[in-house]
Amino acid sequence: MAVPTMTGSSATTSAYNCRSASARPTTPTDPQMCFPRKQDRMKKRVIWGIEVAEELLWKGWELGKEVTKNLALKNLSFKIQKMKYRPPKTKFFFTVIPQPILLSPGITLTLPIVFRPLEEKEYEDQLWFEKAEGMFCVDLRATLPRHHLSCPPSLQLPLCAVGDMAEAWFCLDNVGDLATFFTWEFSSPFQMLPTEGLLEPGQACRVKVTFQPLMAVIYEVQATCWYGEGSKQKSSIQLQATGKCAQLLVSIKHKQPEDQDVEGFQRVLHFGTVAVGCIAERHIRLYNPSVVSAPFRIEVAPDTLTKDQAFSCPTTCGIVPPGEKRCVSVFFHPKTLDVRTMDYLSVLPSGCASQTVIKVVGFCGGPEVSLQHYCVNFGRVDLGERSEQSLRIENRSDCVAHFQFAIDCQESAFSIRPTFGTLVGRACLTLLCAFRPTHPTIYFRRVACLIHHQDPLFVDLIGTCHSDSTKPAILRPQHVAWYRTHLVRGLTLYPPDILGLMLNDKKLERDKNGALMIPTEDLENTPALQYSLIPPTTEYFFDGTRDLAIFAPPVSMEPFEVDFGACLGPEDPNPVPLCLMNHTKGKITVVWTHRSDCPFWVTPETCDVPPLKSTAMRLHFKPPHPNCLYMVELEAFAVYKVCAGRQVRDGGLSAGMVGGLRGGDRGVL
Predict the structure, then answer these.
(1) Which tens digits make up the pLDDT trace of 347-395?
(2) Is the pTM of this model over 0.85?
(3) Could you say which of 2.60.40.10, 2.30.170.40, 3.40.50.300, 3.40.50.1390 is the CATH number of the domain covering 249-365?
(4) Tell me, what's a Pfam family for it (predicted)?
(5) How many angstroms from the chain centroid is the CA of residue 518?
(6) Is 118 in a helix, a strand, or coil?
(7) How many CA atoms lie within 13 A of 635 on its CB side?
(8) What share of the chain is helix, strand, coil (3-state, %, to 5)?
(9) Nearest to 460 by CA among 601, 645, 657
(10) CATH of domain 531-663
């Protein structure tokens, strides 16, 4: 008798021998489970109110020995039963002398039957009873030991999708008297486990049948179990199963306006813009309208490297039960900024069903950080005073932005607080910019704001310091614009007094913006050079402090970085010599910013450097505390040393400005 059950992902049918009630459950990892088969009960029948066995069977007898079995007759009626019996015809079975039998209601009579074998063969006889209603008999049989395996005549497996697998179980019983070795013979697409084994008398074995159809057809295969001496005996079971084509309908769940989900066209799953480092999730819906389970696989385009995959689908395989739906998650986790990523996901049902290809598209967006102003002008500040201005930084995207200004606020004349921080999406922060000069001169520093997953931003910090005795011309944003134009035109290497003379001698002239330029004969066909926009990353890495630079630096210094290493003390380490070179054609004045409690300082603090010459300086390090690490960025400003009045009069201030000179020095104690 077959009892259908559903286990796991595939349907399983189990056929149990009704006599194997003592069989314990098995698992797929224990396919061959042998267990003692429950002893067969004596089959009884009721004839005219008398309950009596159908037959008496003798097994395991020996020659020359008598074996006695009792035949019980029970009166199930409500009246006295009268009968008589005839003795067996052969001499090998005999009983007591026949005499009339009277059975009251509910009374049982036991009649002993003796079997006396004389030859090693099988014996058969009958014991007849006679009543007023008629006659009936009880068969008497004595059998020899034999091989006999029993299995169900047929096994019906459940419907199975092409490419899927169905399972079924049935019991193979050893109903014989001898230990029996068996071997199964079967054909595709069925498999049986175990294919062979040994069963002791009274034992039963659970046999697992698997069905993996390759086509959607009806399969009927006969499996044969060979056993006995020379494997000449057999028992057969008819295996019946049907293969079906599973169908899987793919659709997009929670459609967006950019999605495309029309039958017969390329399906497109659009993630929109996702911030770099974040993860977006969308879902596709799988519906199985067929009557069988639909196994499936999901694959990403095979030509995409795993490390470069921006799309992923954790569900690589699965099964959709008949008539049910299943949602599968697809994730987009971009890693490359400002890139539109496209990939393909293939949903492959098992068997003969066609695959569905889904195009997945997403754009990786980063933070959109901007500054309120890109130039902070502190104007004129008297020596010893401090000027402050606010600067707002804003993130216009939904992506979190991490920023940091490349400035050592403690050792610079300028400071920006906070120097670093985090901006959540659609947020802004007010920064405090301060200017506290240490010498009466002009100050200009271009500070980079480094942003994670975005090109750097730059802010120009300018200011002018006056003292009672020294009052340089006030630096303005227009001067910075002129300086950059002069830098492109190759005029920054000339001091303002020379530029003034050239302007007076008509060797230079001004353009429409007021910047100096070399006169050309054909102004229409040869426009004057202008300062073009430099990519922020290029400007940051090629700022002239290293071997490579966009423009030749007017002033350079060697070494650029100094490491004092481990200072054992108690004496201060020896000063490190520095060489500052003036590449311009005018005399410059170099002023170092120095904080009184800074462990690093440069001597001389102020010096003049002749044109195209170099000067020696010394870098000192005096650690205030032992067992500490020290690292600072020292800052110097260089300007042409000319008469301030002449600078203003001939308009050479912006051309003569060199800009901030920075150097990083480290010391370890």
Answers:
(1) 998 876 788 999 999 999 989 999 999 999 999 999 999 999 999 999 9
(2) no
(3) 2.60.40.10
(4) Ig_CFAP65_4th
(5) 62
(6) coil
(7) 25
(8) 5, 50, 45
(9) 657
(10) 2.60.40.10
